[in-house]
Design a protein that fits this description.
It is built from 12 helices and 2 strands; from the N terminus they run H-H-H-H-E-E-H-H-H-H-H-H-H-H. With 292 residues, it is mostly helical. The chain has one domain: ABC transporter involved in vitamin B12 uptake, BtuC (Orthogonal Bundle), CATH 1.10.3470. Strands 1-2 form a two-stranded antiparallel sheet. The longest helix is centred in the N-terminal third of the chain and has 31 residues.
Length: 292
């Protein structure tokens, strides 16, 4: 029983990281209809920025704040410089461009910070909570990560469902020409979508950095699992991204604990294939909602 509980808590901890990465992918998809395969590289760059600030100031919270600002600016610049020239081209062009952006960011990180992995501290302690004489594999840092992702999910849901900015972002993504006729500044809206998504990705990067060493390629697996979580929950749903991330984290934790860590990646692939075959729109996206 203790093993099952700890595997569950471990799944929740990793699941919220996948959920944060999935939220960034969902945000860009909802605002621009592009799957951003450079998200892992953007998370990596902002994590390196946070690491540099942390080394200079010894302040975790200052490093987090700078990482969020850096993510916002990186997303805005990426959209204006890299994505905008291909926004009216076939969708495959944008996918290829994001892959090229990923390679470029990894190369820049290697030149600036080198290829040596760097360690990153946790926000709080890593000592597990004591419950009934049993030490759980769930710490105050894990609780902080869970609460941060839940708050971001709630804010994104409010953004898209309860604000005019969210409505304009969706209109610019689904029908840009019609949105322009109605007075929406489509280019600014698309830039804002990328900036916000990169900022959410920066948060994901800082949250996952303590669990893995920071290097130019260290965030690629997080992007893969985040994409799987987004597909599972539905690329149009912030709530689906969180539920998808938690579900995937739990499934992979159980697989790793009972079947071995070597089947984890295969398990994620199976989840994506099954979802695409049975419910390709995801668990939390309705067909009507996709036509809005």
């Amino acid at each position: 029983m203790e093993r099952f509980v700890n595997l569950t808590l471990s799944g929740v901890t990793t699941g919220v990281i996948y959920a944060a990465a999935a939220l960034a992918l969902v945000l860009i998809w909802r605002s621009t209809r592009i799957v951003n395969f450079a998200q892992g590289g953007m998370m990596m760059i902002t994590s390196f920025v946070a690491y540099s600030v942390l080394q200079a100031s010894d302040s975790y919270w200052l490093a987090l704040a700078v990482a969020l600002v850096a993510g916002f600016l990186l997303g805005a610049v990426s959209e204006r410089v890299v994505i905008r020239p291909v926004e009216n081209a076939p969708p495959l062009n944008a996918v290829i461009v994001t892959l090229g952006l990923l390679i470029f960011l990894q190369a820049v990180a290697g030149m600036v910070w080198g290829g040596e992995p760097r360690s990153y501290p946790f926000a709080f302690g890593i000592q597990g909570f004591e419950v009934g004489g049993m030490t759980l594999l769930f710490s105050s840092s894990d609780l902080f990560a869970v609460l941060a992702v839940v708050v971001v999910m709630a804010l994104l849901t409010l953004l898209f469902r309860g604000t005019s900015i969210g409505l304009r972002m969706r209109a610019a993504a689904f029908a840009p020409e019609t949105a322009r006729i109605l007075g929406v500044r489509v280019n600014r809206t698309l830039t804002l979508g990328w900036a916000l998504a990169a900022m959410v990705g920066a948060l994901a990067g800082v949250l996952v950095a303590p669990a893995t060493f920071i290097s130019p390629n260290s965030f690629d697996p997080i992007l893969v699992f985040g994409f799987a979580a987004a597909v599972l929950g539905g690329l149009d749903s912030p709530l689906g991204a969180v539920v998808g991330g938690l579900t995937l984290g739990l499934l992979l934790s159980y697989l790793s604990g009972y079947a071995g860590s070597e089947v984890v990646t295969l398990g994620a692939l199976v989840v994506v294939i099954v979802v695409l075959m049975v419910r390709p729109e995801g668990l939390f996206t309705s067909t009507a909602g996709r036509r809005v």
